[in-house]
Amino acid sequence: MRPPRSPVHGNLTAGRGDWGDVAPASPPHRRSGAALRNRPPPVTTVLNREFNSVTAENAMKWDALEPSRNSYNWAAADRLVNHAAAHNQGVRGHTLVWHYQNPSWPANGNFSASELNTILRKHIDTALGRYKGKIYAWDVVNEAFNEDGSMRNSLWQGKLGSGYVANALRWGHAADPSPKLYINDYNIEADNAKSDGLYNLARQLLAQGVPLHGIGFQAHFVVGRLPSSMKANLKRFSDLGLEVSITELDVRIPMPASSAELAQQSTDYKTATENCLGVPRCAGVTVWGITDKYSWVPGTFSGYGAALPYNGSYGAKPAYQGLSDGLNPQA
Ligand code: XIL
Q1: Contact (CB, 8 A) for 92 and 138
Q2: Distance 56 CA to ligand 1 centre (A)
Q3: Domains of the chain, first to last
Q4: Is the CB of 325 under 6 A from ligand 1?
Q5: Are 33 and 245 in contact (CB under 8 A)?
Q6: Taking the chain (331 residues) in consecutive chunks of 10 residues, what is each chunk's mean pLDDT?
Q7: Which of 100, 246, 294, 300 to mutate to test the pocket of ligand 1 (most atoms within 8 A of CB)?
C-alpha cells in the first residue's frame, strides 16, 4: 500500500516509482515524466518530488550533440542522465531522426544516399551506445508525417525514402536492445488522416518484424479542445501490441488566462491522462516542462501561455490536481 500523501505534494508518482499498486493489471513501470531544458534548484525539487521519468527538452537533439561533424557535446545530456540515475528516475531519449534541430552539416554536405545512411546510422549508434542500458525508451523517429497522413519531405525522406524509418529502428535495436523504440508525433491524438498514416506504417513495420515498440503522442493541446476520439485512437495502436505514451503534454491558454480557463485546463490534464491510462499498453505520461517559467509555448504560439501544471513561481495550478487525479484513479 502507498503511504498517505498530502493533497498537493508528491502526488504524481505513486509509491516506489511505478504505479503497480494503482493499476495492478497494467504493465509495471508506468512513468510520470517531465521534459526539462534546465534544472535550477526549484525545478529539481519538483522533479524529484513528483516525477519518475525525465526527457531532455533539447539536450539530446542532433544539433546539441554533434553541432559539427565528429565534434560531440555530451555535457548537458550526461548531466541529465546522471541526475536521473542518482534519483531513481527513468530517462526517455529524445530524439534521433527529425526534420528539425539538426546541425547544418548533414544537409549541406551534398551527401549521396549511401553516405547519408552511414551518417544516420553512426548518429544512432553513437547516441544509443553512449547511454546503453540507461534509457528506457527512445523517440527514434520524430514528426515523420504530414497532416494528410503522407510522409513529411525531410532530408531523410527526400534522400533515403520512407525506408529510413525501418532502418533507424533496426539500427537502434542493434545498438541497444534494451530501450523501447518509439515513433513520436503531434496531431496524432485524434483519429484523423495523420494518425491513419502512422497507423498504416506501424502495422506494416510490425508485419515486417521491425523493432517498433511504441507510439509517442506529443499531446500539445489548446485548452478545451481535446479530441473526443483520443482514447479510442490510442487503443487502436495499443491493440497492435504497441506501447502508447503521452510524451509532451501541455495545454496552452490564450493569455491572459482566466480562472475558468485554468479550471478547464485542469480537466484537460485529467482527461488526457485518463485517455492514456485507460488503454492497456499505456506506458506513461510526460509533461513538456514543469513550470510556466520555462515553457516553449509563449515563444512558439503567439498569444498563448500558462500551459504547464506549475505557475512561474512554482505554485501548483489547478492543472496539477487534474494531472494528479488522472494519474491516481483510485486516490
Ligand atoms: C521544442 C523545445 O521545447 C524548444 O525549447 C525548442 O526550441 C524547439 O523544440 N515537438 C518536439 C519537441 O518533439 O522536441 C519540441 O521541443 C516541441 C514539439
Answers
A1: yes
A2: 10
A3: 16-327 (3.20.20.80)
A4: no
A5: no
A6: 49 53 45 94 95 97 98 98 96 98 97 98 98 97 98 98 98 98 98 98 98 98 98 98 98 98 98 96 97 98 98 97 91 66
A7: 300
Instruction: Kindly give the number of the ligand 1 atom that is closest to the alpha carbon of 295.
Output: 3
pTM above 0.90, yes or no: yes
Q: 184, 174, 178: which is closest to 126 by C-alpha?
A: 174
**147 given a catalytic annotation:** no
What is the number of the ligand 1 atom nearest to the C-alpha of 139? 13
3-state class (DSSP) for residue 206: helix
In the annotation, is 143 catalytic? Answer: yes
- The Cβ of residue 232 has, within 10 Å, a number of other Cβ atoms equal to 13
Which candidate in 50, 57, 66, 143 is catalytic?
143
Contact 32, 12 (CB under 8 A): yes
- What is the grid cell recorded at 174? 542493434
Residue 21: HSE in the Cβ half-sphere, 13 Å Cα cutoff:
9
